[in-house]
Write a structure and sequence with these properties.
single chain, 720 residues, alpha+beta, Immunoglobulin-like, Rossmann fold, eleven-stranded mixed beta sheet, 38 strands, 19% helix
């Protein structure tokens, strides 16, 4: 009997094993980017995927309070499965999902919610975590929680592949090791992008549903790293761009140990985005482009890559009714490699063209007006103002995706007209009309010579602003907010959105106007950009020699002194013993022939303007010696014109006036005066390309003055 029983048991076991094998086995696993506390996009397809033996029947069941709400099943193929059901409407209800393989449960997801899901991606200014941001750091220190409304999939910036953080796969990966879902009650949620947090918070307030974020960024990453090989190979224009830049790598030459997840094509798509294709986000927020400026991509090249990214992502994330909505921001002010940061300005201006190319699926955010303060350990390329960026993105999402009222993307140029010495620019997307907080600033005009000068502007109707300057009688071009330090610009449309930076009547080889925050004499400090973290900060706008200065807002800078004195705009700073040249300041004055400003004598005695002294270095300077203007003590404003087209070396007239091509590289300007018990106000410094007729000459009778030059040079060396 024992032998018979053993045989029967063996037969049963064999049959059981055969049955399991026939059914495809019971071994199945979800990919690791699923987890408790996750969020699916409401009213779209909710997809669950993972690995399983071929032929296995995978079923997914959605429960609410133990009541079955939805169910579906699918068979595994090629070692993977994908099963989906229609997601319910968003709410704060909690669900659970049971997954079975051949009727054997292998996974349960709890605390699942449905709401609005967005992908947040880009480089370091998007990666910048809420824990690093000042408000977030304070909230984290106090242990504050956000509640169940926020759900975040934290994708590690540096992602593991085959157990290594240094290898980059040549092909797309289906899973993301170490990715995890967290909710607003977890301290880990502070790892969310600060921009994404403020975006999600505002969206939650507007829509009153849970909001989820697929948090996937990498500081220093270029746009090509986020696009798939299939997309690149299928787009000849983009493939040629990358090939011409030496950035295209054929599949058969890909070396996993040599490629970079920061700079190489497809790297971040392979490591992150491919796996996230199982989700159906409502849209994407994008803060990126700095690395592509460093790689010297032209705006047009970046635009082609952006177009391809949106098109390929739309297919990847299953957008059946059009393109995936993308909301992106212009970049923070910072100088990369071109003089005066023109590369950044060109990119930011072109971002408007990128948005206009697909206005039904793209939203743009302007940020040039936000403070550029930063944490020293993170550097000036990472301004810590993230709330304005995120909330403006949320406003954009409300209008672009959720049918909100009002304008949601910056006003931009529609057309312009040159008439009566003014350039009148008509804007679109102005909503209730253009506004300014105070006198308009940030404008410049140029004539046919392409030399821009600071200009006045006037809002003439709800959508038109006219730009003009007395120094440019026949203007050809106009610009707005087109300089690195453009926080001074203050033209807005409704909803408080700053008008997008622009140039109309663009000219090749133009000398753009670097906004001089000292020129309007309204503020005692100004924020200046510099590559060195210790030197990007607020500086005094003016300094003085033998005088006291004070500021009275619209009434200019007040100066009191007795005898000889000078006032100087602060054009450089100090870092230890070194002179710091600001990235947002102009040091080339060779294209300008005249400095005009206003002076009012508030005292009892006449004051003499002795001229302008311009320093090439501490040892070499030129001045307009021999010219002077008397400012009478009448309490009225007087206009002073200083000719900087002709300058004397060390202020000595020995027969030669030096043409101002000597002023291509200066670091200080002194405005010199003489007066007894002087009390003056100065205001409105304007530079213009007006130049006097050349009269460079040599006078033999003044040869002896060469001795004075030598003497002054020796004395200056001794002083140093």
């Amino acid at each position: 009997m024992k032998k018979v029983l053993c045989v029967l048991i063996s037969v049963i076991l064999v049959l059981s094993c055969s049955s399991v094998a026939f059914a495809g086995g019971n071994k199945a696993e979800l990919y690791t980017f699923y987890g408790d506390g996750m969020l699916f996009q409401q009213n779209k397809e909710a997809i669950l995927s993972g690995t399983a033996e071929n032929g296995s029947l995978i079923s997914a069941s959605l429960y609410k309070n133990d009541v079955l709400v939805a169910q579906n099943s699918a068979k595994a193929e090629n070692g993977e499965f994908s099963v989906s059901f229609d997601a319910p409407e968003g709410s704060y209800d909690r669900y659970s999902i049971s997954l079975r393989c051949n009727n054997t449960e292998f996974a349960v997801l709890g605390d699942v919610v449905f709401g609005e899901l967005w992908l947040a991606s880009g480089q370091s200014n998007m990666q910048y975590s809420f824990a690093q941001e000042k408000t977030g750091a304070s909230m984290f220190a106090n242990g504050e929680k956000f509640g169940d409304w926020l759900r975040v999939l934290l994708v590690p910036p540096v992602t593991q592949y085959n157990g290594s953080y240094e290898r980059v796969p040549a092909t797309p990966q289906n899973d993301i090791p170490e990715a995890k879902w967290v909710n607003g009650n977890s301290s880990a949620v502070y790892e969310i992008s600060a921009v994404a947090y403020y975006f999600a918070q505002k969206l939650h307030e507007e829509l009153d549903v849970p909001v989820g974020v697929l948090n996937a960024s990498l500081g220093g990453s270029c746009i090509a790293s986020w696009i798939s090989r299939d997309a690149i190979d299928g787009n000849p224009e983009v493939k040629n761009i990358l090939t011409s830049c030496g950035e295209y790598y054929p599949l058969d030459s890909w070396n996993e140990t040599e490629r970079s997840m920061f700079y190489d094509m497809t790297a971040n798509f392979n490591l992150k985005i491919n796996a996230l294709g199982n989700f159906r986000p409502a849209g994407m927020i994008w803060y990126q482009g700095e690395s592509d400026i460093i790689l010297q991509k032209t705006p047009e090249q970046y635009g082609a890559l952006f177009d391809l990214m949106q098109k390929s992502y739309s297919e990847h994330f299953g957008c059946e009714d059009g393109l995936l909505p993308i909301i992106f921001t212009q970049l923070a002010s910072y100088q990369y490699h071109k003089e005066n940061g023109i590369d950044l300005l060109e990119m930011n201006a072109f971002f408007t063209d990128i948005q206009k190319a697909q206005p039904e699926s793209r939203g743009l955010v302007s940020i040039y007006d936000v403070p550029l303060t930063y944490l020293p350990e993170l550097g000036p390329i990472h301004p810590d103002t993230k709330k304005d960026v995120g909330e403006r993105m949320a406003l954009c999402a409300k209008g672009l995706v959720y049918g909100g009222d009002g304008e949601y993307t910056p006003a931009s140029v529609k057309d312009y007209e040159i008439k009566d010495g003014r350039i009148c620019v008509t804007l679109e997307n102005v909503g209730d009309g253009l506004v300014a907080n105070g006198q308009l600033r940030g404008f410049a005009v140029a004539g046919a010579d392409g030399i821009f000068v600071g200009a006045k502007a006037e809002i003439v109707n709800s959508n038109t602003v006219c730009v003009y300057s007395e120094k440019v009688q026949t203007p050809v071009s106009a610009s707005y907010a087109y300089c690195l330090g453009n926080m001074n610009a203050n033209l807005y449309a409704s909803e408080g959105l700053p008008v997008s930076p622009f140039v109309v009547g663009n000219q090749e080889n133009a000398h753009y106007w670097a906004e001089k925050q000292w020129a309007d004499c309204e503020s005692d400090t100004a924020f200046h950009l510099y590559a060195d973290e210790a030197s990007t900060k607020f500086y005094d706008t003016w300094e003085s020699v033998n005088a006291n200065i004070a500021f009275s807002g619209a009434n200019g800078m007040n100066v009191t002194a007795d005898g000889e004195f000078a006032v100087s705009p602060v054009m450089t700073g100090k870092n230890g013993l070194s002179v710091v040249r600001f990235n947002d300041e102009c040091y080339d004055y060779s294209d300008y022939g005249t400095i005009t400003f206003r002076v009012k004598n508030n005292g009892l005695n006449d004051v003499v303007f002795d001229g302008v002294k311009v320093y090439k270095s501490a040892d070499v300077w030129y001045s307009t010696a021999g010219e002077s203007d008397v400012i009478p003590a009448d309490g009225k404003w007087h206009t002073v014109d200083a000719d900087i087209d002709h300058m004397y070396l060390y202020g000595v007239d020995f027969g030669v006036k030096f043409a101002n091509d000597k002023l291509k590289n200066i670091y200080d300007i002194d405005f010199c005066f003489t007066g007894k018990d002087a009390e003056i106000s100065v205001d409105d410094f304007v530079f213009s390309p007006e130049k006097a007729e050349r009269d460079t000459r040599f006078d033999i009778t003044k040869l002896f003055n060469i001795f004075n030059i030598v003497k002054m040079f020796i004395l200056e060396l001794i002083r140093q």
